[in-house]
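Lesson 9: reading folded outputs for more than one chain in a single document. The general rule is that every protein is listed as its sequence immediately followed by its C-alpha cells, and records are never interleaved. Here is the first one.
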Amino acid sequence: MSKNNIKTSGFSLAKRKDIVGDDYYEIKQFNDLTIAVLCDGVGSAEAGALAAKKVTQHILTNFQNIPKAWSIEKAIKTFITSINSILYAQSMQDYERPELVTTVTVAVIKGNRLYGANVGDSRIYLYRNKEIAQLSHDHNEEGMDNVLTDAIGIDKDVEIFYFENNIQKDDRVLLCSDGLYSVMSENMITSHLENGAYNLVKKASSLMEENLPDDTSAVVLEINDTDEIQKMKDLKLNIPEKLKKGDEIDGYKLTLSLIQNDRTWVCEKNSKEYVIKFAPYEALENEDILDLYTKEVWNAKRLKAGFFPKSVVPKNRTSRYYIMKKLDGITLKQYLKKRTLSVDDAITLTKTLLAMSQYLLKFNLVHGDIKPENIIVINRDEKRIFKVIDFGSITEVFSITNKAGTASYLAPERFKESAINEKTEIYSIGVTLYEALTKEFPYGEIEPFQNPNFKNIKLPQKYNKNIPDWLENIILRSTCADDELRYSNYSLMKFELDNPNKVPVFFNKNTPLLERNPLKVYKFGFYFLLILNFILIMRSV
C-alpha cells in the first residue's frame, strides 16, 4: 500500500520520573510496505532496553533487504527467530544468564493486508467501525499477568504468535506496551484512538496523575484509503492465452496486432477504433508480472494529462485489459527514418517531455523509458504535437530495483544500478532531443549488456548545422556523462529552453582551458612572454 494512504504516529513515556524508559519503537515505510515494531524491554533484566532497540533495528534492517521469493510470514518469523538466537547467545556470553530480554510486536501492511506477530505481552489491536479487537496473544502465566511465559532472548527457542487480517479504509492498527492497556480499558482506548499515539499515551499518563507505573508506548497506523492497485489485482479476471484477429471480448473486436507478442491490438466497438492492451498470459502464474501489469493499469487509469493518450478501465470487463484512445500518428522513431525534426519542433518535443516529467513527479513517479519509440508524432492544424506512451515503464522516483529503460537512453549511472531520478530522466530527454535533431546518439548506439564508453561526446552541430549554439549547450548539459554537471531538475532545463539568451556556454571538466576561456589563456600568454622578455633583457645588460 502506498505510504500516502497510511498516516503513522508513535509516542513513548518513561515510568514515574525516569528520563529514559525500556520501551523502543520505530516505523518505516518503503516500496509498498509499512512496518511498525514496538518492543518493551523487560525491566527486571539488566539489558532490557538494549534488547528492545536491537530487536527493533534488526527486524527493520532485514525487511529492507527481504528476498523476493519470501512471503511476509516467512520474513517475520525468520527475523524474530534470528534475533532471538543472537540475543540469547550474547546474554550467555556476557552475563551467563538471559539479560538481553524484551517483548516484541510487529505489524506489516502490504496492499490491503495486515501481517502481524508478537512474543510476550505487548499487544496489537485492530480498530474498525468504533469497535476494537485484540489480534495478538499475551504470553503470560495464567492468572499471573506480570509473569511472562515467553519473550525474545529468554531462551534459545522462541514461541511466535502470528496472524493476518484484511484492512479497510478508516481502520486503525494499534501497537502498545502493557504500560498502556494496564491503565486504560479497551473502551477508553477506543474513545481516544482516533487522536493518535501521542494523545493515547498522554491520556494514560493523566490517569496516573503524570506518574506512570510502567514505561508506556503506542504506535498507531491509520488507514486513510485502501490500496487501489491491490483491489485491481484481486479481481477475478480471465487472461486469454492466445489472441487473433476477429476475436471479440466485451464487445471489442480485434482488428490489428500492434506488437509482436500479440498483447496489444487495434480494436473496434460501436464503429470506433481503440487500442486494447492485455496482461501477459504469464501473469496467471507469476505474481511479479501481475504486479507490474496491475501498476500499469492503475497508472493508465489515474494519469490524466494531455501528453498521454486517454485511457479507461471498463467497469464490467471480464478479462485483464485496458483501453486507450487510438492516436492518428506514427512513432518518433518511424518519423526519424525519413527526416529529422526542425529546431522548433524539437524544442516543442523537449518542453512536452519536461512537462510530462514534472506532472509525473507530483505522483512521485518517473516515466523510466523516454525514447523515440515511446513518442507519437501527430500532425494537427499544420502543427506537430507529441504524445508519450508506455504506461508500463512508469515507476517510483528513486527506485533502485526497477530495470525500466533502454540502453542507448540510460544515464551512465544507471549502468551502475543508481536510482532513477530527475537527473537520469533528463539524460534520457537529452538523448532523445539529440537523436531527434541528428538521427544519431551522443555516445553511439549502446546494445543491451554492453559496457558503454561515455568519454567522448559527438557535438550535435557536426550532424546538423541548423542547431543554434544555445540549444547545443542545452543538449550537451542534459547528456553530460558527469551527473554533477547535468541539469539537477526539470525546471532548470525548461528555464533555459524558455530563455535562450540566458543559456551559458557548457564545458565538460576535461574541456581544454583554451576552449573554455580563450581570453584568459591569451592574457596569461601575453604576461608570460612579457616577463620572459624582461628576464632576457636583464641578463643581456
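And here is the second record, again sequence then C-alpha cells.
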Amino acid sequence: MFSHFSVALALLSPLVMGTPLRRAMQVHEALQSTPSGYTLTGAASPDTVLSLRVALVQNNIDGLIEALYDVSTPSSSNYGKWLSKSDVEAYTAPESETVDAVNSWLSENGLNATVLTPAGDWLGIDVPVSKANEILATDFSVFTSSVTGATTIRTLSYSLPSNLIGHVALVHPTITFPNPSGIKPPIAREVSTPAASASDLSDPCAIVKLNGTAMTPACLQELYGIPATPATVASNGLAVAEYEYEYAEESDLHTFLQTYRPDVNPNTNFTVLSIDNGTNPQSPDDAGLEASLDLQYTVGIATNVNTTFITVGYNGDFLTNLLDTANTLIALDSPPQVVSTSYGEDEQYVSASFATTLCNAYAQLGARGVSLIFSSGDGGVSGNHFEECTTFNPTFPSVCPHITTVGATTLIPEVAVDFSGGGFSNIFPRPSYQDAAVSAYLTLLGSNDTGLYNASGRGYPDVSAQGVDFEVVNAGEVLQVSGTSCSAPTFASVVALLNDRLLASGKPTLGFLNPFLYSTGASAFNDITSGNNTACGTNGTLGFFTAPGWDPVSGLGTPDFAKLLTAVGL
C-alpha cells in the first residue's frame, strides 16, 4: 500500500455488512485478446488477495490542463506563475456525489478503502480474487510470460455498476499487463582500462572524437557548454527515480567524483526518498548499474544541486510503482523541481484509461513547476528494446504530452543513435505546442511508413543528448553504459542548472518545458540531421530518419547551454 496515506477515507461511512444490492453492470475496460507475449494459464486462486487501485473521476481535469498550459507557455501573461498544492487539489478532488457513489458501492460489498492521495482521487482496496470477480463481474486469471516465465494475475475485461459510470475512472491493475520481457537494464560493457584519462587531455572529448567511446562529465560540459561552476540556490532540487531493485552506492559516487570531477568535493552525497518501502542498501553486491548511471551523471553534471535518490520498492507491477511515485511527489509541499526517470513500458501493454490517468498526474506536477524528464526507450521504433515488430511500438510514459522525453545521440559531430526511441502515440493526440514542428516533419516524410504509425499522435522524443559509452563506477568497477538512460539524466542536469540561474535572479523555475521548447527555446538546440531509429520490418529496415528541425529520432536536437540561458531571459 502507498505508505504516505494509510488513513481511512474520511468521507466513507462505517461499513455495514449485509447483502450487496444487485445493480446493472456495464463493461468499463476490455481487451480483445490476450496481449502478445502472454498465455492464459488458468483461473486465479479465489483466496489470492489483490491490491487494487480505484481512480475516482476528478472534478475538473480539463481545467487543470488548461491552467498547466497557461502557466507553461512563454507568451502567456501567467507564464511561470506555478499553481500551489491546494490549487491543484481543487481541480482534482472528486465531487461529493462521486465520493458518495463510491462510498455506497464499497459499503455494500463490505470493503475498506485507503486514501492514496491528498485530493482523494485514488483509493486502495485489498480484496480476494473471489470478491473482485464478484464486484467487477469478471474472471481474474493467471497469465504467463512466454519470454521470462513470470506469472501475473490480470483479466481481459471488467465491469462496473452502471451508477458508477462517470464516477470511477478505472480500476488497476486489471487489463494493463506488465511487459512480458520485463524491464531491461541499459546496455553495458566492461572497459579494461578506465578511459578517464581523457579528462587529463586538453580536449576532454578527445577519445569520443577518436572512436566514439568514453563519454565523461567533462566531455558533456565541453560539448554542450555546461558550466562547472557550483549551483548556489539551496532550494533548487533534482531527483532521479529508480525501480526494479536498483540501488546507488555512496562509495561508487565518491570514486566517480574523484575520478571524473576532481574539482568537486568527493564526499558530496544525496538524499534518499523511499516509496513503496524502497531501500538503498550500501553493499557492492547491491550496486545497480542504472542507479549508478543516473545518480553519478546528475551529481557529476549539475554541480552542487541538491540531489534526491528516489528508491521505489518493487511490488510486482512497474506501472503501479510509477503511479505511487507520482502521487508521492504530488503530496510533497515542495517536490524537487526536476525529476529524471530512465524507465518505461511499451504503450501496447498499457490501457488508455490508465495511461491517461497517470499522464494527468504528471500534469499536476507540471502545473506546480516540476520538470519531468523521461528517456525515450532503447528499441528505436520497435518499443522499449529491439524486438521484432510489424508496426511501430511507441513507449510509455514517453508519449505523455505533459512530460519531456529525451532521445539519444552519439559521436562528435553528433548523429542520432539507432536505438533512440521515437515515434507517435496511439493513445495521446498531438498536443498543440508541437503542431508546427511535427507537421513540418510529416510533410518531409510523405508516404513513407504509411500505416505503421499514428500520424495524428503525440510525437516523441522532444529533445536528445549523448547516450553512448558513458563511464560509470559500479561496485568499484568502471563500466561503459549506453542507452537513453544516459541521455535523460544529462538533460535533466542541464535543466537543473538553468533553474539555479533563474532562481538566483529571482525568476521562477522552468517547470513543464515543452511549450517553451517548441517556441522560444527551439533555437537553443543543436539540430541533428544524421541518423535513424529503424528497427521494424525485415532486418530492421523500417523506421524514421532525422531531418532539419524536429524529428522522431532526436527531437529538437541537443542542448546548447549558452543559447538556453538567452532563451530563458538570462
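What the second record shows: The longest helix spans residues 484-504.
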